[in-house]
Amino acid sequence: MHPMQPLPIEVVPSYPAPSWEALAATLQSLQGAARQFQVDIVDGQFVSATSWPFTAPDHLEALNRLRDWTAVYELEVDCMVMEPQQYLTTLADIGAKRIIVHYGSTERVADILAHAAAYDYQLGLAFTNDVFSHEWDAIAALVPAVSYVQVMGIATVGAQGQPFDERTLTTVRTLRDAFPTLTIAVDGSVNAATIPGLVAAGANRLAPGSAVVAAADPRAAYRSLCALSSS
User: Fold this and answer.
1) pLDDT tens-digit profile of 66-117?
2) Beta strands in the chain (DSSP E)
């Protein structure tokens, strides 16, 4: 048997923006450096935090502003929302290549799987370490039906700048052992200090937030993290 080739490492900046202006400025700042970008949408119901487009008067209409950026980035939308199925058609129509739903945000999982197949986008399943520890069997049963998983590297999702949850390393290792070819993303406290351990544990899709978007030079910060992840 030939040894398995290592999975390629991808670095995808993420941002739960407070406004469209803040998000657009960040997208502009990384243009030509990052090929992918994760927009975190947070409704204030699934978690207590709120981000754009839920800070806009008409959040569904606001989402359409992303359409202009789909020629610049492969856009991924992380739906930290209750009942994410209500946004999926809009997100697919504007050209999102990847959409993440969080475990426990809906009971209509079968409908979401069918929607992803019908609209041909990659569907990710996200969960915290707490959820993973209690729902391993249910999550493992869903993994073959989704394109990838996203482990939250922080204990409370929805806001950037939180400390790293060390349990993330064990969660990633458990997933990698169980699913050798699975794309395993990590979002939350992904930075220069945590990336080496995450890659060693088996993560191959990394979503840094404040380490890039809050940097004085986001392009330089992004490129530095890319270099670190592949070293």
Assistant:
1) 999 999 999 999 999 999 999 999 999 999 999 999 999 999 999 999 999 9
2) 10-11, 14-15, 36-42, 74-80, 98-102, 122-127, 148-152, 183-187, 205-207
